[in-house]
Write a structure and sequence with these properties.
single chain; 123 residues; seven-stranded mixed beta sheet; globular
Length: 123
């Protein structure tokens, strides 16, 4: 079992930055690849970024490439999402999730989910 708790969301102006954190419980955190998804108002949940268990590989949605950076600290059981140059269309509830699958961008591949943190970007 892995429990995930996101934090760091908030209200920011366009062009600003936020850093999301996802704290995981359980001693097997380093066994999982970790992903970030987001759900904009009235839309489906979508893939944002993912990182391998070792932190050496990552993948990003085209919409966030060059602006967002995913990282992890296995000693702290935490994964991060640094978000720069935020846009109003980044407004969403952001979720972190854990997976043992190689299909990182597929929502159904993830075994565990956090409850999400709201990010609102004003224009």
């Amino acid at each position: 079992q892995v429990q995930l708790v996101e934090s760091g969301g908030g209200l920011v102006q366009a062009g600003g930055s936020l850093r999301l954190s996802c704290a995981a419980s359980g001693r097997t955190f380093s066994s999982y690849a970790m992903g970030w998804f987001r759900q904009p108002p009235g839309k489906e949940r979508e893939f944002v970024a993912a990182i391998s268990w070792s932190g050496t590989r990552n993948n990003y949605a085209d919409s966030v490439k060059g602006r967002f950076t995913i990282s992890r600290d296995n000693a702290k059981n935490t994964v991060y999402l640094q978000m720069n140059s935020l846009k109003p269309e980044d407004t969403a509830v952001y979720y972190c999730a854990a997976t043992t699958s190689a299909l990182w961008s597929v929502r159904s591949s993830y075994n565990y989910w956090g409850r999400g943190t709201q990010v609102t970007v004003s224009s």
